[in-house]
Each structure stands twice: as C-alpha cells, then as structure tokens.
Amino acid sequence: MKRWSLAGLLALVVALLFTVSVFAADVIKIGVQAPITGKFASEGQSIDKAVRLVVEQVNKKGGLLGKKIVVITCDDEGKAVKAAICARKLVNDGVIAVIGSYTSTCTEAAEPIYYRAGVLQTSDGTSDTLVKHGYWTFFRNSSPNSAEAKFTAEFFLKKQHYKRIAAISDYSTFSVNLTNAVVKDLKKMGGNVVYTGKIVSGSQNFTPILTKIKSYHPDVIYFGGYYTDGGLIRAQMVQLGMKADFVGGDSNDNPEFIKLAGKAAVGAYLIDVPLPEMLPYPAAKKFLKAYKAKYHENPASIWTLFNVDGLRVILYAIQQTKSLDTKKIAHYLHYELKDFPGITGPISFAPNGERIGSAYMAYIIGPDLKYHIVYREK
Amino acid sequence: MEIFLQQLVNGLTIGSIYALVALGYTMVYGVLKLINFAHGDLVALSAYIGLVIIMQLAGVLSPALLILITFIATMIITAIGGIVLERAAYRPLRKAPRLSAVVSALGASMVIENGIMLIWGPMPKIYPASVVPNVNFDLHGVYISLMQILVLVISLVLMVALYLFVNRTKLGTAMRACAIDQDAARLMGIDVDKVIVTTFVIGSALGAVGGLFIGMYYRGITFNMGWIYGLNAFVAAIIGGIGNIPGAMLGGMLLGIFNAFISGYISSSWSMALTYVLLIIIMIFRPTGILGERVAEKV
To answer: Which residues of A touch B129 (CB under 8 A)?
Structure first.
C-alpha cells in the first residue's frame, strides 16, 4: 500500500516537472526571497507587493521579450537556515533572478546557492561582506555601511568645514564599527578629530562625558549610536550650553529622536538614506503613487524601493541584451549600464556587484521639527 | 574650574536620584534584613504612572499645580504598590529562610518589569518636553537648569524630612527599634507589621520621586530601566552602609560624583568600571560601608 502511494507521488512529481518545464519556455520567472512572516514581516511583505506591482505594470505592456513575467515568492522568515532552503527552492523552480533578501544574514546565506546555479540576485543588505565573495551573480541595490562613513566624512569636511570634531559611539558592534569608520575616513581626508569616546547605551546621564568634550571646544559632535541615546545627548548638549553641532548616524533617524530632544532637536543633523516620500526623483513619486493606488498604504520603508530598483535594473538589462542568459545580463549590468534612472537615484554597478554612488543624505531638523535635505551626493 | 564645577553639578543631580532610590533599599533592609530587588522596578513603574497622570492632566492645570499633583498622586499610587508588594511577595515568607525571600524579590522584580512591558510596550516612552519650564541658568560658564535645581532641592528637603521623621517621631523611633530587634520591639508593644508597612510606604514614595525625576529630567523611560537604576542605587546603599539612612544619601551622592569625575577626568569609556573599582576599594577599608558601624554591631 505504502509503496503504491510512493509510486503515485513520484509519477505526480515527474508530471509536475514536465509541466513546469513546458511553461518555462514562454514565461520569465522572477523569485522573491523575503521575510514574509516573523520580525521583519512588514518589510518583506512590502518588498513582495512592490515586486508584484512592477511585474504587473510590465506584463500589462505586453511583458518582456514577448513573454509574461511570473513572480514566485519564498518566505525566509529572516532566518539564515530558511534562506538557504528558499534559495534551493527558487533555483529548482527555475527563476532567472531573485530579489532579496531583506536582511544581510539571509542574503549571505543564499548567495552561494544562487551563484552555483547561475541565478542573478539583488539585495538591499548593507553588510560590507556581501560583495566580498566574488560572486558574479550578486548585485547590491542599496548602499553598504562603509558608504555611510564615507558620506559622513565628506559632509563634515566638504560641506560643513568642521575644524574640531568629536565622535562618540556606544558599545554595540554596529555603533563602534560605524563610528570607527567615520573617524578613519575623516582622518584620511585630513579632518581634525579632537576627541573619541564611548557611552553606555541606556545610561541616560551623558552630562559628564559632554562636559568633558566641551573642554575640547569641538565645533561638532558625531554620534554613531541609536536614537534613544542620541536624542538625550542632543538635549543635554543644549542644556550644558554647548554651541557645537550635533550630527547623528542613521540609527538616530527615528521620530522618537525629536520627541526625546524636544526643542533641542532643532538644528541637529542626521545622516541616513531618505524616507521614500523624500526621494527627489520623478520616477520615485510615480512609483509611490502607483503603490498607494494599489495597496492603499505606503511602502514599509526605503528598503522596498531599493529592491524595486534592483528588479527594474535587471528587467532593463534583459530588454537591452534581448537575452535570458544570466551571464550576459550580469556582464551588461557590471560593465555597460551607466546611471540608470532609478527611483532611489542613478544606478551603476562596480564589477564586484556593488552599487556605485551613495543614496545617503544629510538632513537638518528645522524649527518645524521636520527633516530638510542639506547635502547629498551628486 | 568651570569644568570641575559643571561635573560637580552633573554628579550631584544623578547622585540625588540614586540617593532617593537607595533610601528604599536601605530602609527595607534595615527593618527586614531583606534586599528588596523589586524596588528598582517599582521606581520604573512610578515613572510610567507619572507619565500617564501628566498626559491626562496636561493643559488642564497650570504647570506648578500639574507638577504638584503628579508628584503627590504618583507617590500615593507607588506607595500602594509597595504595600501590595510587601503583602504578596514578602509577608508570606517572613518566617521562611532568607534566601526564599530573595528569590521572591527577584520574582516580583520580573513580574513588575514584564507587567510594565505588557501594558506600555517595549519601546521607550517619552515625557512631554516642558513639564518643568525649560529654563537654563549660566553661572559663569557653569550651566544648571531649573529641573536640576528642583531635583537637588526636593531631594535635599525629602532627605532632611526623612531624617527628622526617623529620629524625632514616635513612629520613626519604632522603626529604629524594629531595625535593632524585632522581637524586643514587639515585646515593647510596637506593632511590627505596621512599622514594616510604613517602611515600604516611605521607601516606595521616595522611589516614586526618583522615578519622576528620571522621567522629567531625562525624558525617555523604558520598561527595564529599573534594573540599572536599581543596581546603582543598591550599590549606593551598600557604600553608605546598608540599613543606614544618612549612609544611603551619602552613597548615592558619592556614586554620582565619582562617575562624573571619572568620566570627566580619566575616561568616559571606563567610567562605570573605574567607579566600581573605587567603590571596591572603599569596601575593602570599610566593609560595612562608610557610615555602617551600626550594622557591624548587630552582626
């Protein structure tokens, strides 16, 4: 009895495989590997929805190379183990390109599988290591962590012309790495860093270290930690009568920062990738409108839009090369694509799959307690 | 010189908050020989209660009245919390071995901490910007805000009042009697249970003032902040000599000032570690704390 059902199952699988390969001829399959459930569910679902929206738009115009595009989604739950399973599943499903995943961890776990199968992959993961494996299949569609440091240093020295810089971090790996990278880039560009120090996140009382920093007479304090501390640091700087500017790294970008700092938030600078609605590009406004019309909400975050750009650029490359050969598409993306008008800014790729240029922007918090762009890479 | 004075102001402000919280530890220890580990979480709870009251009454009352009512209401509610804590977690274990009570205290701490998280969520809550008007005084380069002055003055007044209460009133005398020998106190006709409840009421109410200061001065409050303030205050109580009321005040102030000067003059990265090294040195030379002779007598 058991053997019979097994045989039946096998027959079914074989039959299914045949149907799949029959269909494969006249559709282009695009995979989405994203955390549809779990901690990052809102981000993952937003990416999936956005990809489906773009594909729907393309299909409405007659598809790509005369073929319809089909989206296959796999939920990696934001877990590395699931990411590897998803990657194998999508490869078996015969996708030619995968959008995802949202987290660097999941992206990195899936990378070698796509590489071995020759499937293109584009991700918003910001970990610097993603492009260090030498996989020709991988394209980062956002800016890596190191780009933030470089951008910060340029903002400090080329725009603000700070002469005496103090930098603080907390003890988290993220914060220490970011702050160290900023200090390193500042020194490389000839910046004068007069003080570096660390605070204990959550200790709330930062007046001792700020009083000490005050004695160095800096004209700016950079903080590479989280908004829960950043807001208080800013408030206590003002309370101590410090005239120095405050510049916060990307984790200070949270509405709570302004609530914590209160009136002291006015005049503080933050550095981060922009909110979707702050993107200055016409293509971005058009996409956001379409997204809102279809789903009656805004994309979860800017990361959705980075992934959309990853998808759009791959579809564009397919059209330009008139080919579904991933090697040819990758070559086009690496060497021929220049300044594709993405919704998160112009897109070009370095030969290692790194997106060239940075999407980071510097904002000042105005008296209206809203963000105003003061600096961005040309 | 400005830097020195500024650090002194910084240290005294946070030190007063530590001292207020430390009083709760030290009073309960004095009477019950129990470390009330849930005290720090009660302080965190009071900060949340204060926030709820402020959000309800803001705009309805004048600022001065708002602050007054917030303080009184929060102190009363937190004191009731202290009574409930004593009834539920400590009184049933009064005759049990000391360790059982410690475990019960840790359990109560987790219940309160997670209760706060369930009610108000894990994200930080933020006090409105100007409960206390945002006035800043510049004294020749030393900056002190109205809020800091309030923290220092109110703490000082409360501590003096507590000292007088314990040393000059009948109930205070009963409290001291219970601290020395509960059985003897009972033989003298003192209602020990009443004294213990009073201890919890006063300790919790003072902690509530500390919690409100944290909320109003630092603005951001989190459900788990009771742990870090509790730990610091507990250490302050031990440094001053646990069970000794002026000792807790002194310990809190010293802890705040040490911390400020070490991060100001040596290294901010090492401030916590070096503060504790200094405190260990004090403990080596005075194992019972700076003002802790009375504890030594009892042992």
So the answer is: 259, 262-263
